[in-house]
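pasting for ref
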Amino acid sequence: MPEGKLGRITSRFPALQYGDFRTLWFGMFFASATMMFQFYAQGWFISGLTGSVALLGVLGVARGTGMLLFSMWGGALADRVERRTLLIITQSAALVLFGLLSVLIIFDLIALWQAFVLIFIVAAVESIDAPARQALLPELLPREHIPNGVALFMAAQISAFAYLPPLAGVAIAVIGPGGAFAISLIGHVVVIGALLRMKIRSKPAPGGTNIMRSVGQGIAYAAGRPSVVWVILLGFFIGVLGFPIISTLAPYWMRHELGLGAVGWTLMGWVWGLGTVGSTVFLSASKFSAHQGRIIVWSGTSFALTLVVFGLTRSIPLAAAAWFLNGTFFTANLIASASLLQVIVENQYMGRVMSLRSLSGAINQLSAAPLGAVADGVGMGNMVPAAAILLTLLIAAPALLVPAVRGLDSAGRPELETVPVR
C-alpha cells in the first residue's frame, strides 16, 4: 500500500498504525468471512434435527455451559501466561474440533447429543480464547487509541454479516451444514498465521498465586468498582433477554413466524449484518471515547425497542428494517462496553475482568433454553415482544436511578499512556 494512502487511513483509523495490531486485525477480518459459514451451519443443522424451540435452546445450553465452566479459568490464564501463545493453542484446538464436527456431519455419523457435546467442548475452548484476545489489545495500543482498536476489532469480527450470510445459506443448501463447517476451518488457519507473524510478547504477572485464588482476586477487583459492575450487568441484561433470540432461537422464528427457508433466514442475517457494519464503520471513524457510557445506555435501550417492533410484526419488510436497526444498536453497545472496560481496567486484571464479561455471555447462552421453553408454552410470537419490553425496563431504570450508570462517561477518562509504534 502506498505510504501516502496508508498515512491517510491511519490518520482516520489511528489503531492501524501499530504493526502487530494491523497484522491481527487483517487476520481476523479474513477469518470472520469463513467463520460466518460456521455460525449459520451450526444453527441450521441443530434446527433441522428438532422441531422444538426448547430443544433448539439446548444449543445455547451446550455453548453456555462450556463458557460458564471455563471462562473465569481462561481469564486467569490470560493474566498468567503469554497471551499470544495461549491464543495460538486455543485457535489450533478449535480448528481440530470443528474439523471433526464437519467430518461427522458430512458422513452422517453424528447424533444430536454428540453434536451438543462437541459444541460444549468448542465453547470451553472459545471461553479461554476470548478473554486472552481482548486482554491482548491494551498491549498493542496506547489507551487513547483503544476505543478505535475495539471498534476495528469488532468490524473485523462481524463485517462478514454484511455480505456473507446469503453465501452461507447457499452453501448450506448445496453442500449441507457439514460442507459449510469445512469451509469455516480456513478462518482458524488464517488467525493462527496472523498470530505467528506478530512480534509482541506479553509480560504476564507472576504465577505464584493459586489459580482459584487468582480468579477470586479478579472478582473482588471488579466488584469493588461500580462502573465495571454496571457495564457487565447491562450487557448481561441484553444477553439474557435479547441475544438468545438473535443467536439461537432465530432459525425457529424465521421458519415458523416469517415463513422463510435457509436462504431467506441468511438474507435476514445479511440485513442484520448491514446494521452491524454501519455501526462499526461509524464508531471506528469517530472519536467516541468521551461518550462511551452514554452510548452503552442509549444503544442498549434502542436495541430492546427494535426487538419489540420485530416481535410484533409479521411484515417481512418491516421486520427487516427492525432487524437492521437491531444489529446497529447491538454492535454499538458491544463496542462501547468493551472499549470502556479496556480503558478503565488495570492490565494485570484485564483477562479476569474480560472473562467476567464472557461469563455473562455464558449465562446469556444458557437463557436460550428457558426462553425456548416459554415460547413452547405461550408461543414464540408472545415470548419475543414480552422479553423485549422487560429488557427495555431493565436498561432504562438504572440509567435514570443509579448514579454509577449516569457517571459512566466520566469513568472512561483515565490518564493516557503510550505504546511504541511497531
